[in-house]
């Protein structure tokens, strides 16, 4: 998440996003592997494997899986940053994401290790620890901060975070802001393959289990831990787009090997997803229906037109999104 200077005097650590005709700046080190062959048994075809780009923020280790020079977005998924794993010593400064505005989308943050203290101008604050998640609906707009807790800054420890930006369709862009913070014990899990697969379900359904977050748009979100040799199969309707990211480890998915920091891009052909762990591994596995709407983004705002972006900037400058002290 490189630095944007969106408004005079205000620097924001935010992701590079895009409009229909926007080009990403400069070359990157993305590795793209094309896959041409189809799969039997109604397996979902894989279009490409994308390697996340190393893109540190201050002293924070960060790999950006999307957008990069090889992939802009997977509608409705706009953005994926992988921070860490990183060891912070005692008396550290913590995460660098101080107050900044958002409008027009949602964020889903996985706290794989460490903690994040969420604060915003509309819904309050909370500290979520290892294994928990934060789901923030920016909607019509707010100002928020994602920093480390005072305890983490004092004591230090390991930190690893995944953040995904989830687009909102045009009719929900200006919905009321909302925040849901869930600790590890609040997230249901399903075990498969004799306990070698643990699926943490955040939104949507997996068999008879239902995630605790009521997605406004029917997005299905999970994190999945696999022990070496473990595996699972599931079905995803061909019309739904899949976000499949290998946080760590090596897996075989629909016959293709994918390793740490790899984003697997699926085609909309077939429905079966079959995964086998070649080593202990962690995945982010989500899917949702595409909106097929214009995407116009400027730093922290994701709307459908340039006029809406201009209005978002004006609303922020006039204080309509609220305020938050450092």
Architecture blueprint of SSEs:
Elements: E1 3-7, E2 10-13, E3 32-34, E4 46-51, E5 53-54, E6 62-66, E7 77-88, E8 97-102, E9 105-113, E10 115-120, E11 124-129, E12 133-137, E13 142-147, H1 150-155, E14 157-167, E15 178-182, E16 189-192, E17 197-203, E18 205-206, E19 209-210, E20 220-226, E21 231-235, E22 241-248, E23 250-253, E24 256-259, E25 262-266, E26 272-277, E27 281-288, E28 296-298, E29 301-303, H2 306-317
Antiparallel strand pairs: 1-2, 3-4, 4-25, 5-6, 6-7, 7-14, 8-13, 9-12, 9-14, 10-11, 10-13, 12-15, 16-17, 17-20, 18-19, 20-27, 21-26, 22-25, 22-27, 23-24, 23-26, 28-29
Number of helices: 2
The CATH architecture would be: Sandwich
In oligomeric terms, what are we looking at?
A: single chain
Instruction: Output the strand order for the largest sheet.
Output: 3-4-25-22-27-20-17-16
- DSSP helix fraction: under 10%
Main sheet overview: 8 strands, antiparallel
């Amino acid at each position: 998440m490189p630095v944007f200077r969106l408004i005079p005097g205000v620097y924001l650590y935010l992701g590079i996003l895009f409009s229909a005709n926007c080009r990403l700046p400069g070359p990157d080190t993305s590795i793209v592997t094309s896959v041409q062959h189809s799969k039997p048994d109604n397996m979902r075809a894989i279009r490409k494997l994308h390697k996340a780009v190393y893109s540190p923020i201050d002293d924070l280790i960060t790999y950006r899986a999307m957008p990069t020079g090889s992939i802009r977005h997977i509608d409705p998924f706009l953005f994926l940053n992988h921070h860490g794993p990183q060891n912070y010593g005692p008396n550290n400064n913590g995460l660098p994401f101080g107050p900044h505005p958002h409008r027009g989308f949602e964020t889903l943050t996985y706290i794989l290790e460490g903690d994040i203290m969420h604060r915003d101008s509309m819904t309050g604050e909370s500290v979520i620890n290892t294994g928990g998640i934060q789901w923030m609906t920016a909607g019509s707009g707010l100002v928020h901060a994602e920093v480390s807790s005072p305890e983490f800054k004092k004591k230090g420890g390991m930190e690893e975070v995944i953040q995904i930006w989830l687009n909102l369709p045009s009719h929900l862009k200006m919905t009321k802001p909302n925040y849901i913070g869930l600790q590890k014990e609040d997230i249901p899990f399903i075990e498969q393959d004799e306990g070698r697969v643990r699926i943490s379900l955040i939104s949507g359904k997996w068999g008879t289990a239902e995630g605790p977050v009521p997605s406004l748009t029917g997005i299905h979100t999970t994190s999945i831990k696999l022990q070496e040799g473990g595996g699972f199969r599931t079905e995803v309707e061909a019309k739904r787009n899949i976000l499949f990211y290998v946080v760590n480890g090596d897996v075989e998915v629909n016959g293709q090997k994918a390793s740490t920091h790899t984003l697997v891009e699926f085609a909309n052909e077939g429905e079966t997803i079959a995964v086998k762990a070649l080593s202990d591994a962690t995945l982010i596995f989500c899917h949702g229906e595409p909106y097929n709407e214009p995407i116009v983004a400027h730093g922290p705002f994701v709307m459908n037109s340039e006029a809406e972006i201009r209005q978002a900037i004006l609303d922020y400058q006039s204080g309509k999104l609220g305020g938050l002290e450092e």
